Amino acid sequence: MNFSELFKLSGLLGRFSPDGKSLASCVQHRLVVRDVSSLQIRQIYACLDQIQYIEWSSDSLFILCAMYKRGIVQVWSLEQPDWHCKIDEGSAGLVASCWSPDGRHILNTTEFHLRITVWSLCTKSVSYIKYPKACHQGVVFTKDGRYMAVAERRDCKDFISIFVCSNWQLLRHFDTETQDLFGIEWAPNGCVLAAWDSCLEYKLLLYSLDGRLLSSYRAYEWPLGIKSVAWSPSSQFLAIGSFDEKVRILNHVTWKKITEFEHPATISSKKTIVYKEVEKSPSVETERLSFPPTRELASSLFSTQSKYEISQVPVSLQYIKPVADRANPKVGVGMLAFSADNCFLATKNDNIPNTVWIWDIRKLKLLVVLEQLCTIQCFQWDPRQPRLALCTGNSRVYLWSPTGCMAVQVPGEGDFQIVSLSWNSSGDSMVLLSKENFCLCYLECEEI
């Protein structure tokens, strides 16, 4: 495993291009595009204000930079550096911006969610979608890029509209049986749309492409409900993380629950492997000591090393009792992710914040528990193989695969606190992000 030097960053804005060949990063109002393999700068673009969001087009030829405070989107071309595009929403304002799947249309959501404006880069035409709902996940595209679903709110009722992305024609418009629609998500095969209510009511609805209600699911009645939702890459399973600290798995045939995974504070099963992160200060031979010590020796003297040890069950995990009288209590399963091969599911229970749970989907049982020293900030699966990377806000990156797990210290001076990470589509590199810097991590295919 090799690491690049640290580069400046602002707003956690570091993104790989979809083809995996380029990396875009932001420093205030500047957009820097680097070649992933050599880290040579390909282009530097200057925007009109501080960049708050960036997104690559699907063909990796264009980059969108949104400046929400100014209500402006600027688009840059990698092939033609002299070409540029500016979209100004004016007094309507701007709260969200994204590419359409064809990479030639931009969807801007105006302030107060009054409308979505669809701008064409090719014909310079403009289309409008009215009444988009201000919710967690209100605009989603099918994986093949043919259809778009939009959550809407009209006359105090929730609706979903399905559009054809090729011409932005309305395909279906139907109301949903929700009190306060919170999010929508297409199955990867594009045949089923999941819609779920806010946490105040446990309700998940599944619709076909033509708007028919296929099934509805409710696990319980009164307590706080759904917190996170994730489809498996094969579309065979839908995982629902709830505030009751459980994950429920629905199957794609009957849309009924096939199992539920609990997240207890004590691991007692001998079939579960518990990896515990431990820190150890390195031992330095007294013969090597010189005063003042060299910079390399000083850094090794005061830095601690981390590794995993297998704990003997039963193991008690660090459990934080949620504060019941505060909004958004830190309780329940807030993070879910399936591995690319559909074999594993990684989860995080927010009131056991230092722990990642890895479930074997083939056997529907808990396989591994990773107990970290610090709170889990982010985890993500390798897009090519069952390999999970995670970070905990320190200068280490952690990797798990079925063959074992490891903790790797990012070399370099200064305090590099990794709060987010992202895999390259090729699976051979990651970008590690802190609030002020980023670096690239290069992996061998058979690493671990």
UniProtKB/TrEMBL annotation:
<protein>
    <submittedName>
        <fullName>WRP73 protein</fullName>
    </submittedName>
</protein>
<dbReference type="InterPro" id="IPR052778">
    <property type="entry name" value="Centrosome-WD_assoc"/>
</dbReference>
<dbReference type="InterPro" id="IPR001680">
    <property type="entry name" value="WD40_rpt"/>
</dbReference>
<dbReference type="Pfam" id="PF00400">
    <property type="entry name" value="WD40"/>
</dbReference>
<dbReference type="GO" id="GO:0005815">
    <property type="term" value="C:microtubule organizing center"/>
</dbReference>
<dbReference type="InterPro" id="IPR015943">
    <property type="entry name" value="WD40/YVTN_repeat-like_dom_sf"/>
</dbReference>
<dbReference type="GO" id="GO:1990811">
    <property type="term" value="C:MWP complex"/>
</dbReference>
